[in-house]
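Lab notebook, bench 4. The sequencing result for the construct came back, and we need a structural model before the next group meeting so we can plan mutations. Quick request posted to the team channel:

Model the 3D structure of this chain.
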Amino acid sequence: MVILDVSIVNVALPSIRAELGFSAADLQWVVNAYTLTFAGFLLLGGRAADLIGRRFVFIAGMAVFGMASLVGGFAQDDTMLVGARAAQGLGGAIVAPASLSILTTTFTEGSERNRALGLWAAMGGAGGAAGALLGGVLTQWLSWRWILFINVPIGLGAALVAMRVLAAGRGKRPAGHFDLAGAITVTAGLVVLTYAIVGSEQHGWGSVRTLGLLAVGAALLAGFALVEARLAAEPLVPLRIFGSRQLTGANLVVFLMGSAAFAMWYFVSLYLQQVLRFSPIEAGLSFLPMTLTIVACSQIASRLTGRIGAGRVLTVGMSSIGAGMLLFAQVRVEGTYIVDVLAPSLLTAMGLGFSFVPVTIAATSGVAGAEAGLASGLVNTSRQVGGSLGLALLATFATHRSADLAGTLDPVGALTEGFQRAFVLGGILALLGAAAAAGLLARQPAAQPV
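Done. Here's the predicted structure in token form:
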């Protein structure tokens, strides 16, 4: 549910824009308001799971997520929807690391944990792709508002089941030390950076406004590093944890994977509806082969990882994502689903299936049990930050490209050229991730607890 809500809105974006009056540039905030608060508070959620109990944190996160979904479903304007999506991100930031921490502390490291993490990662990968399918069905048959309403009964049911089947699960550290200053500075820094990138389409990269916002965002992130290194009693990210080359490499790769994957779902959804003129449900059904491929490849990847190592499997997966994105860059105004969407989407889905599992295993292997929540939060944070900044950057370049061609091409042609530019950049980011996996993880031995 948490990962699905990143992508479930993509197919509904044209409907949301028409009803609530979003501009083309601001529409991405429906996605980024969620992913940025998700990313900024994931580490706090992970530490909370370690300190005060995984079951309690999991249930609390479900409650926040459900209430925010209810408010978003009743949104009357763009500001109310973006605010509700931000609150959803906070709930997701509480739930996601708690769920992964529950698995890493319940199952013994090795093949048993790899199978459990394989299922967890498969749900994450499938959620990203299935979100488009479910979003299309709900938007066309009911209303885009039901993409939010549906979370309420699911969240309530999950919370009730968790009360019965989950152990409390808390680390030995005293409760009460939460690095709120760290969470606020990193979230504010990411929001300001994203706002600067999005605003560059209107104001230009060299404008005082854009450069000033970039400087403020960088200063906030530098402040976060200072808080973690010197000021926080219980830092969100003890910097010593980055002494693990495997953990650091895995987080770099998952950052680049998020940058490519989030943008891919966003732009493919828009291409299907705005260029190929698919209905919401047709666009959603177009992602079904992708969903099935991710689930199947995730299960294969969990077995391969135990045999040949996470780094090698991850290198293949990221290379496949890059190749798929570059194939997507060939989309045409007069394109067809089979040629322009299905073929590259299957290649990209294979890559995602072969990447989600090994990168999760690599990021959490060898981490001490007391810091399972931290490692879980880090890998999720890296994916969400990569997704937010990648989407903002690629959407900005796409909009720039379309605007430059507005006088020479018809609107649909200019729009398609912008999508092509975004897919090329996404492919480059994924191939950089493949290179990082090969260089940092492919020959890396199992990490020792940090």
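Residues 180-232 form one domain.
Will bring this to the meeting.
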